[in-house]
Amino acid sequence: MDGIQYAVFTDKSIRLLGKNQYTFNVESGSTRTEIKHWVELFFGVKVIAMNSHRLPGKGRRMRPIMGHTMHYRRMIITLQPGYSIPPLRKKRT
């Protein structure tokens, strides 16, 4: 799965699991149709809706120089009723 980086587990994303919506961080260059195809192929589910938003990178100071991390994209994927994605492990940092 080239475009999907990892699943997101926040308070909001856990609440959305009850509505059959799953949250993933994806590569910023991936298109909606690519992500939909990868999710349907890898998990064997049917996607009915996708919402995405681009999150800005955070500022990081390296001594006197101010740098920043890369921006990333978050997708909220809604599945058809009756489909679900098996439990996903939380990414460790």
Could you characterize the architecture of this molecule?
With 93 residues, this protein is α+β, with helices and mostly antiparallel strands. It has a single domain (4-79), classed as RRM (RNA recognition motif) domain (Alpha-Beta Plaits), CATH 3.30.70.330. Helices cover 19% and strands 38% of the residues. The chain contains 2 helices and 6 strands. The strands form 2 sheets. A 4-stranded antiparallel beta sheet has the order 1-2-6-3. A two-stranded antiparallel sheet has the order 4-5. Strand 4 (59-62) and strand 5 (65-68) form a beta hairpin. The longest helix has 12 residues, at 32-43. It is elongated, with a radius of gyration of 15 Å.
List the helices and strands and how they pair.
Elements: E1 4-7, H1 11-16, E2 21-26, H2 32-43, E3 47-55, E4 59-62, E5 65-68, E6 72-79
Antiparallel strand pairs: 1-2, 2-6, 3-6, 4-5
Organism: Chrysobalanus icaco
InterPro entries: Nucleotide-bd_a/b_plait_sf, Ribosomal_uL23-like, Ribosomal_uL23/eL15/eS24_sf, Ribosomal_uL23_CS
GO molecular function, one term: rRNA binding
